[in-house]
Request: fold
Amino acid sequence: MSVLIRGGRIVTAADDYVADVYAEGERISLIGESLDVQADKVIDAAGKYVLPGCVDPHTHLDMPFGGTVTIDDVESGQTSAAFGGTTCHVDFVIQGKGQSFAEALDTWHEKRNGKAVIDNGFHMAVTDLVEGGTLDELASLPDQGVTSYKLFMAYKGALMVDDETLFRTMEVAAETGALVMVHAENGDAIDVLVKQALAAGNTEPKYHALTRPPETEGEATNRAIQLARVAGSPLYVVHVSCREAVEPIQLAREKGWNVHGETCTQYFFVDDTFLERPDFEGAKWVYTPPPRPKENQDVLWNAVRTDVLSVISTDHCAFLWDGQKTMGRDDFSKIPNGGPGLENRLHMIHEFGVRHGRITLNRLVELLCTNPAKLFGLYPRKGTIAVGTDADIVVFDPERRHTISASTHHSKSDYNLFEGTEVTGSPEVVLLRGHPLVEDGELVAEPGIGQFVKRARFGEELRPATAATA
Ligand code: URP
Ligand code: ZN
Ligand code: ZN
Reply:
């Protein structure tokens, strides 16, 4: 199959120009003015942006968590992603206690087989190096294309690891060329605060935020940075939500240390007062780290503008409000943590980042496409528009008006974090490796089209030869 995209404004992290793009098979083969080629499919992109497919490095599909399982499986989660212009994501495999990494990885491969709508890779969330996976097994994962290890410094009694496990994993990463990712919060201190709140009868959703103060995020962020420095591993801090965590990352980067950070769409728009909404509605915004006081939002915009933070992800971890979030009606600590977001990252960051003058269009591409691809071993196959790269392309109509709503989104969640928000600018056509995925508001490809991508090690490039398996 061949596709010709005519006359669009091609925007990458570095460039912004009008040209045609021609993809033959699954890759881009020509870019130029008024290309003289025949194609099976021609898309008129005059007046539209032609963007690289977005890459989301932080999602949780079909994941057991918080006494339940996230509501979006691979098919619904990835469909939701596709409508939002995301063509590749990296999902978290969670090692169960006592489980080998191989078993955990097999389980996650099984979840996606035959269902995948977009391409994906996997991170390995390490939870047990005592009775579960061994250090040797951990070291073998990059050979299977799993080139990042994730550690939770919170969720005591569930996913949380101690500093020994964190440090040993960092040492393995320093040897194997994997990237260490941390959920940075002080889980021990939070556990004490949660118990004290419940003992005092403080059970409403707002106590989720009050028992996870910003300092607990700042302390863990700094601890992870210092330990990674000792171990000699690169570090990526996920879902940074507040000034207390931004500052140690900024300091580390000023020193030239190998430290990187991401924030997520919701932290720019949702503040701690959302948790106070009546009739338990506040539970919709119970995710971790929690929504912060509003003044943190400007801190985050500045951080993504100046590359203190290099990625905006979604942390898509969707639940139903009715039936899942309500498990915590009488006890905020039983509300499953997380929210849906895969479909609206590009909408929201285009509207409130680019259109409101906070970041440039090039920087949007860098934050949503190019940097996640580079940091997670997907670049240059993913994350840019150039000859030889995968033809993962979003034809984006900057004039199309869209109202974000659970009534039209494709996640199975019964609510949307940004319900009722009006944006101007929306994906019109989405291509995955040259195959039309979304067109005229419909998913036009069959589940199964998505491939597992074996990612390159940190700092290495992913070339077509080391490519994907179905
Ligand atoms: O509340 C959240 N963020 N849920 C997903 C798990 C995590 O901590 O990323
Ligand atoms: Zn987390
Ligand atoms: Zn997460």
Remarks:
- Residues 58, 60, 315, 317 surround zinc ion (ligand 3) (CB under 6 Å).
